[in-house]
Amino acid sequence: MAAAAAALASSPLVHLTAAARVRLPKPRASPSCSRWGCPRGAYLDWRPLRRCDRMRRFSVDEGGGGGEADGEKRSEEEPAAAVEAKAGAAEEVASERSRSGSFSSSSSPSSVTPGVSSEPSLLSFSVDSIDTVKLLELLGPEKVDPDDVKAIKEKFFGYTTFWLTREEPFGDLGEGVLFVGNLRGNKEEIFGKLQRQLHELTGDKYNLFMVEEPNSEEDDPRGGPRVSFGLLRREVSEPGPTTLWQYVISMLLFLLTVFSCIELGIASKISSLPPDIVSYFTDPNATGPPPDMQLLLPFVESALPVAYGVLAIQLFHEVGHFLAAYAKNVKLSIPFFIPNFTLGTFGSITQFKSILPDRKTMFDISMAGPLAGAALSFSMFSVGLWLSSNPAATSDLVQVPSNLFQGSLLLGLLSRAILGYSALHAATVLIHPLVIAGWCGLTTTAFNMLPVGCLDGGRALQGAFGKSALFGFGLTTYSLLGLGVLGGPLSLPWGLYVLLCQRTPEKPCLDDVSDVGTWRRSALIVSVFLVVLILIPVWDELAEDLGVGLVSTF
């Protein structure tokens, strides 16, 4: 018998059966089971048992593959309380499955084949069971701590500061809290006091905003709009740092802008360019193979003055922004230049990298760039017209069609006043390259001063009159651009550029309520009026009456 037993033990069939019955080790459950959160006797399984906070716990089913002898042995060793606990856990699993329907039901013990696992796959769940709200909360910005909100309400607000009446969501995704109520004093003094108390309580954890009360039908009895206070986490409300990819994109856009400015300088020599190249780019009915572009290389050197002038204006524009931001202790991003083959450039996109303290700061930084660029552009334009009116003083004049002066009502009238009627009433006009650079600079500055979106004009209007006023002005601006009233042939590409890149208004300042003063508003109104005069083209009847361009040449 001993020899037969030894031979049977060494049989491969016995080893295969034993290998098939190998099971994963089961964790021991302590009496309190503090680690797994389940009653004694329960064990891990690859099926969901219950939801704990935002995670699911799993347990191992002891049926299937264990053998009847093992099951009988365990049932003899376990106390009756553990058996009852396991029965309760099984009922909970069944009820969880019936409620969610997210996992496929397992087979009954009688249908389980010994040695073969009947457990469902880890990923065998239904998409319908995903809690979308919880998922957005996990992926979205971090919300304000409710305990901090409770402490702020108890310690900050009261009869002497701000009487709280209700709370509302605040922020782009409702990640903050807006405290709505009645102000009990001077808004600037109360806001400063609340900021100091918030810093003492939470440090640099939050930013407090003073904004206009939404949907308010009446003004504050002390003057101005009714105010509310918004609370956001600092990492949510403040802009992020400039990334390496943004530096790379900025450099590539700058190189493209340099190329487009050189192309503008070459186009200004249109009267001396090879006829084949001119007809290929200007005649829509031109056929045949494209001309040799190497024929344009000799004109690159003569195109540099115009290219340098346009680039200098745009760089001067950005310097104005950065100097004003430095004085206000505000950080700006690197500029992202936008190339354009008609004007050399459409300007640049410069973002705020610091949260703005008040609307005066927004207004001053936004207006500094256009004022600097317009000052240099107008200087170039005026000097260029003076040199053009004295051909003996320079020999660098270029010949351009006179109908180009019909692109702007204001600039066309200034050119008519300095150059005279006879000069602009001819088919072509001899002008200095500074005229072209100044004209393009003033037109680009005017486009960027339009009161819409996140343009310089939109930011200045938002700072002077508030975000609510920007909506009406922006809608009017879009309508005028769509009708071609502003900008002429450039209205459509500029409107598309604004819709794609600059349509979103600027984020609110910390103090988004305080008035900017009368003189800032007056300066903005005068600027917008000049912008409209620059961007309105001269129609044929008016051009004939004013003597701007030769209408009969069209």
Give your account of this protein's structure.
By secondary structure, this protein is of the alpha+beta class. The protein is 49% helix and 11% strand. It contains 20 helices and ten strands. It has helices spanning 2-9, 12-20, 68-77, 80-100, 132-139, 146-155, 187-202, 234-237, 244-267, 275-282, 300-327, 359-389, 409-419, 421-424, 433-448, 456-465, 467-483, 491-502, 518-535, 540-546, and strands at residues 47-52, 55-59, 162-170, 176-183, 206-212, 227-233, 336-340, 344-349, 398-401, 428-431. The strands form four sheets. A four-stranded antiparallel β-sheet has the order 3-4-6-5. A two-stranded antiparallel ribbon has the order 1-2. Helix 11 packs antiparallel against helix 12 (359-389) and helix 12 (359-389) crosses helix 16. The longest helix is centred in the last third of the chain and has 31 residues, at 359-389. It is elongated, with a radius of gyration of 37 Å.
